[in-house]
Amino acid sequence: MTLAIPAPSPVFQRIARFTLDQSARDIPEATRARAALLLLDTLGICAAAAPMEAGVIARNIAVALYGAGTPDLSAPILFDGRRASLAGAGFAAASQIDNLDGHDGYNPTKGHIGVAVVPALAALAQARPDLRGTDALAALVISYEVAGRAAIALHATVSDYHTSGAWNGLGVVALAARLRGHSADQLRHGFGIAEYHGPRSQMMREIANPTMLHDGSGMGALVGLSAAIMAEQGFTGAPAITLEGEEAAPHWDDLGTLWQTDLQYIKPYPICRWAHAPIDAAQMLRPELAPTRISAITIRSFANAVALFPGMPETTSQAQYSLPFAVATMLVHGEIGVPHISGAGLRDPDVARLVARTQLEVAPEHEARFPEGRWADLSITLEDGQTLHSGEIHARGGPEHPFSEADICAKFMDFAAPVLGPHRAGAIRDATLALACEDAPFSTLTDLLTDPP
Known about the structure:
By secondary structure, this protein is an alpha+beta fold. Helices cover about 50% and strands about 5% of the residues.
């Protein structure tokens, strides 16, 4: 990729106009409404993850390492209440969300945007009590559009497959620049700093060895918010080549015409998206069998899905990246929630029996459709020799098989209410959905997000 970029490129100038000058009214109303649902969905995962070990550790780290000496550059940590720097508050919430793998994503990016930009929005809004809901949603849309294209440009121009943290920080920079009134020059330096320091972490290394590092988005949020404030203070950064490199230019051609925000998928399960098609296949076949009668399971999918953790997990991180475990859990319990991927759920003997009877195969037809699609098929052999076949299944929740607003709200309540209580969870739901109204203040929502469960 071309490295020498002495002057702002025409692509950057378009991105700057889009980021800084695009009015909320210029964004389709349906796209802003979709952003509100993405915001709600991400907040639900953040709430559900609050009691989990990774979230507790991340919040404590933010207070210990990323405190703010300047009050106006600090914010309360989501569902915790303690204050940290803007970057620290973003890091804590993004790490928390990242470690409960139920948040939105976009197939072409092979990763996640909301996990970093939603915490950034919540942190930055603390200094903007005048922020209107429509303007907050417009900023959120812009961050999705910038981050998604930066991801696609990165994947197209490098050999390694990097985590979401490598690129979703650029969406954070766009969000911060818009909300903090940056100039185009400050925006350019912010992008350059964020891309330079973004974690070019190898996703498949984490897939093979699941840990709390997960998809790198905690560091993506930390770097993005840090870069924006650094640029605001006059720190300079080399131009971001995923935005301004010659090879990256084609990936920005549809900015402002194709709204990637509308194409984000919603996850029904807190499990790696690569496992969702086989899980849906298991859900479809489950009424026709008793799990105790299963003698063998064969899952055929794309190579990255087959590379997920192969055995019975010992940790929540492993459970969220285990394809056999996810399918076995659905077959045994008919659902997958936080209790199934933590605590006693990791020692379920019925699930373990099915995991031991599962075989994985790479299917050329499914591999050919990745990453645009997440396809799989499932075969289950019973003890009497009968075999059940799912046929080809595509994961639900994306543009091909979308969830309704009612579905997304129900998912939010399922995840958030057990932690926050139904009254507070319902108030967050209602305040988020109301953001699309012209006069709705964003502070109505932020006031509900600070206190710990």
